[in-house]
Design a protein that fits this description.
Layout lengths: L2 H20 L2 H56 L3 H74 L3 H59 L8 H4 L10 H17 L1
Helix pairs in contact: 2-3, 4-6
Length: 259
């Protein structure tokens, strides 16, 4: 292999590799979609021109058909009037109009076929464009996903597992210890409050039961007159109220339980 051939191959390989690196599939596909969409107006203009030609030929055909009928009437009128010279002139015009009509009719048939083919080609192009656009969008989505995966792979490659793992474990242990200590303090505080409230409620229940018992004894006359409860009077000679009688007993009973 010659030196020039080798240099050419190296240059082409280097150029191709550089293009592969800078070529963005997403941008290329988006530009392709734009190019395909830009061609649609051009196709519509071409189809419109073909259809306009067909309609013009159809209009010319109608005019020539009317001209043939008119010339035929004029020829008959000239013959009836004995004007053969005028009739002969009209016959020449009629023959030319008939030739033009036949030629226009043939052109109209070709124009109608061309219009159908143009419309079909335009519709096929639009259908193919939609199909290609959908495929391009899928490829663009796949390209974005591949790019994201590449970035994630690069991040994972640069991620130092050992050092970061030890840091995470250390921080996790510190946080777990703080959480456990806080939960323990909260539990102790709640238990202390609950115990105090339970003791108060139990003490209040005992006082209520004892007061009820004294009330029954008072009603049944079981408390003697020599007791401190019987000696407490209101004023100088009034009867002792039940609440005044029970107060010293409750106080003595509470003092006894405290001692």
């Amino acid at each position: 292999m010659g030196l020039w051939s080798r240099l050419t191959r190296v240059f082409r390989a280097s150029t191709g590799a550089a293009l592969d690196r800078i070529e963005n599939p997403e941008l290329v596909l988006q530009q392709t979609i734009r190019d395909m969409r830009d061609r649609v107006p051009e196709l519509n203009n071409s189809v419109a021109q073909v259809m306009a030609t067909e309609r013009l030929l159809a209009r010319n055909k109608d005019n020539l058909a009317k001209q043939v009928v008119d010339l035929d009437s004029k020829i008959k009128a000239s013959v009836k009037m004995g004007r053969d010279d005028i009739a002969t002139a009209y016959i020449g015009q009629l023959q030319q109009a008939q030739l033009d009509l036949e030629r226009t009719d043939a052109q109209l048939d070709h124009a109608g076929l061309a219009s159908k083919q143009a419309l079909k080609a335009r519709d096929n192009y639009v259908l193919n464009m939609k199909k290609r656009t959908a495929e391009a969008m899928q490829l663009i989505s796949a390209a974005k996903q591949a790019k994201l995966q590449e970035q994630l792979a690069q991040t994972m490659e640069s991620f130092n597992i050992g050092d970061d793992s030890s840091t995470f474990n250390e921080m996790r242990e510190k946080i777990d210890r703080r959480v456990a200590a806080a939960e323990a303090k909260l539990q102790l505080g709640a238990a202390s409050v609950d115990n105090q409230m339970a003791d108060i409620e139990r003490e209040a229940m005992d006082i209520q039961l004892h007061d009820k018992l004294l009330e029954y004894k008072q009603q049944m006359g079981l408390l003697g007159s020599g007791t401190p409860a019987a000696s407490k009077q209101i004023g100088t000679g009034g009867e002792a109220k039940s609440d005044d009688v029970l107060d010293p007993i409750i106080v003595n009973d509470a003092n006894n339980r405290t001692n």
